[in-house]
Q: What sequence folds into this?
């Protein structure tokens, strides 16, 4: 099993692939809006603490499970410990990622549509006010969002079909560093806009009075989502990490890249949102309304620059969403390849069909299916809420219980320290193990319950 399995080629490749999974729509639209709504800098501080004390230990736990078992998320736990409950726990990570991928790729499709609009210079020469309406007009159309969702999913599938080294690793190694450059370009553009200062002030306020139990729950939830925890993606990528690799350093590298990108995205987006005079809490549509408005306004004066920046902006979103979607795909593909006779290409095609069909409901949820409501939520919102607030937290809880309470402490230590050869990991093991065993389960249980009462 061990010899046949593909492995990432270097530590850089591991971090770029994992950062590729982590950096996504969560960083670009969810984080900036949450920071604004929940006390600015104070929220960022809670977010950083939650990442260090809870998310990173969970991340480590997932890589430990993946690398030790050498299996993808499904089957990883039952390989390490028998028992029906862990077999069941192993199935969750096959279905949850497909569930999230089905609606995530709908947003990927919106981004693709806006990238095409940018290339056609659709935002210049148009009245800025009408540009804000473009998003609303697009998502209510019956078939266009479905088509863009399927195209996006197919493009991600094409990279996945190439394999772990030639697909995921190659794509992430080149695209993630480029994403950092692109987001800095947008940031410079955004900060130069008239009225940008207000957006910066909005992000920089340090409103301690905004901190309440809800803020803590949101900060933790956002941190899990952003680091791609609880979806089986890190367990699966963990199984492609070589035995020589340092798990702690891979986690820290991924966490720092993810956080840096989230903060850069805040400063790239909020000033533009304020310059466009749009409410920062506008939700999923925020980036699709505010930025095109700015591009249209600028486009009237300097069309070329505005067109180039808009292409850069939507390209950044498409690529960031692609690398995250690829990691969700990989969980299902790896499962099929390991457990059936299906080959990688066919497995990718199967996942494409499954998620493609399931995603049609989310893609149509603002148009033909807008009347369908369950528990007071439209289909798209329901998928988002169920996967990020419920399933993700529940699956993470099982993961930490598994590593903290089911696996033997010595096995966890051996994996974390590469059989005792990493001295810093050896010294930090006690703390990390404590966080996995006690703090993370308690925090996850509290957030799980809080979702229903807050
Ligand atoms: N981390 C991704 C983001 O921030 C979302 C994601 C979650 C991707 C879970 C894969 C698994 O957008």
A:
């Amino acid at each position: 099993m061990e010899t046949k399995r593909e492995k990432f080629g270097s530590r850089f490749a591991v971090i770029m692939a994992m950062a590729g999974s982590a950096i996504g729509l969560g960083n670009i639209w969810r984080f900036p809006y949450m920071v604004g709504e929940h006390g600015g800098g104070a929220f960022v501080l809670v977010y950083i603490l939650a990442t260090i004390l809870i998310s990173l230990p969970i991340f480590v736990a997932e890589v430990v499970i993946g690398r030790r078992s050498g299996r993808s998320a499904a089957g990883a736990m039952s390989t390490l410990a028998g028992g029906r409950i862990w077999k069941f726990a192993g199935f969750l990570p096959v279905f949850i990622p497909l569930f999230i991928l089905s609606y995530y790729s709908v947003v990927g499709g919106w981004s693709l549509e806006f990238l095409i609009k940018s290339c056609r210079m659709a935002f210049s020469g148009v009245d800025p006010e009408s540009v804000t309406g473009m998003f609303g007009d697009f998502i209510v159309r019956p078939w266009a969002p479905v088509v863009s969702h399927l195209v996006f999913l197919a493009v991600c599938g094409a990279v996945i079909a190439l394999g772990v080294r030639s697909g995921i690793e190659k794509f992430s190694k080149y695209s993630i560093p480029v994403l950092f450059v692109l987001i800095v370009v947008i940031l410079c553009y955004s900060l130069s806009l008239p009225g940008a200062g207000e957006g910066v002030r909005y992000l920089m306020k340090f409103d301690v009075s905004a901190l309440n139990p809800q803020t803590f729950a949101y900060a933790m939830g956002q941190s899990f989502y952003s680091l791609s925890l609880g979806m089986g993606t890190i367990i699966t990528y963990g199984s492609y990490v070589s035995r020589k690799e340092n798990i702690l350093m891979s986690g820290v590298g991924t966490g720092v890249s993810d956080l840096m990108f989230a903060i850069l995205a805040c400063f790239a987006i909020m000033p533009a949102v304020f310059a466009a005079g749009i409410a920062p809490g506008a939700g999923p549509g925020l980036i699709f309304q505010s930025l095109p408005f700015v591009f249209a306004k600028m486009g009237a004066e300097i069309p070329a620059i505005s067109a180039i920046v808009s292409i850069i902006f939507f390209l950044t979103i498409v690529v960031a969403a692609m690398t995250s979607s690829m990691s969700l795909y990989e969980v299902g593909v790896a499962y099929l390849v390991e457990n059936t006779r299906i080959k990688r290409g066919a497995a990718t095609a199967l996942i494409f069909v499954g998620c493609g069909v399931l995603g049609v409901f989310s893609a149509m949820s603002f148009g033909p299916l807008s009347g369908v409501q369950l528990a007071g939520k439209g289909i798209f919102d329901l998928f988002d809420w169920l996967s990020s607030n419920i399933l993700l937290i529940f699956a993470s809880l099982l993961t930490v219980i598994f590593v903290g309470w089911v696996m033997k402490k010595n096995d966890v230590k051996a994996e974390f320290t590469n059989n005792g050869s990493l001295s810093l990991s050896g010294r930090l093991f006690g703390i990390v193990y404590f966080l996995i065993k006690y703090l993370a389960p308690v925090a996850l249980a509290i957030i799980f319950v809080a979702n229903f009462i807050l």
